[in-house]
Design a protein that fits this description.
The complex is a heterodimer of chains A (65) and B (134). With 65 residues, chain A is mainly alpha-helical. Chain A contains two helices and no strands. Classes of the chains: A mainly alpha (65), B mainly alpha (134). At the A-B interface, α1 and α2 of A face α3, α4 and α5 of B.
């Protein structure tokens, strides 16, 4: 019984400690996602060509191994 | 034999079309080809609708472009392809695994929370019924 309470206490403590950090990380990732999407939508041709070139380089490196 | 036929095999006829007429003919043909090519390109662009696809699925389009580049770079028949496919499968399975873990954790927490009170009450009432309820 006591161990259950201790575990609950511990879980609550961890949640309180990590909660804000997880929220912050979530917000940061969401912001990054929005910025990337905006960038891609503003310059679709450049992004597609960049991805194509990157894939080509990776494929070239992989084929040389 | 009319004039046009004679103009076609200029080596035998006496009346050759002038250079100007030939240039004009070639120019009009080239213009026609150019117009048709532009029409085909416009139709293709409309059919593919790249802008809308980029608007709706930016990451998927970037991934597709990178995959095309990878294949063009000659990476298809390499060991890295297998590694990438395995990694992709694992990433695709992540949401399913997460859901399963959430369900397991929820069940564990529910059983963990309900066990002491129910067992203590059932043991207090009748010691034999505790095992039958589990």
């Amino acid at each position: 019984m006591e161990s259950t309470q201790q575990l609950q206490e511990k879980a609550r403590e961890i949640q309180e400690r990590l909660g804000p950090q997880i929220e912050e990380a979530k917000r940061g990732l969401s912001d990054l996602n929005t910025r990337i999407k905006t960038f891609v939508r503003e310059r679709p041709g450049v992004c597609l060509l960049g991805a194509l070139a990157l894939g080509f380089v990776v494929g070239r490196i992989a084929s040389r191994r | 034999m009319d004039e046009q036929e004679r103009a076609g095999n200029g080596a035998h006829g006496n009346q050759r079309p002038g250079i100007g007429a030939r240039v004009e003919h070639i120019s009009s043909s080239a213009q026609q080809v150019w117009t048709e090519a532009r029409g085909v390109a416009s139709d293709l662009k409309e059919a593919v609708d790249l802008d809308r696809r980029m608007e709706e699925h930016p990451y998927a389009m970037l991934g597709a472009a990178a995959a095309v580049g990878y294949i063009l770079g000659g990476g298809l028949l390499t060991s890295m392809t297998g590694t990438l496919i395995r990694l992709g499968l694992k990433v695709a399975a992540l949401p399913w695994i997460k859901d399963e873990l959430w369900i397991l954790a929820g069940n564990a927490v529910a059983s963990f929370g309900s066990r002491p009170s129910s067992s203590s009450s059932s043991e207090a009432a009748s010691p034999g019924t505790g095992a039958s309820t589990r």
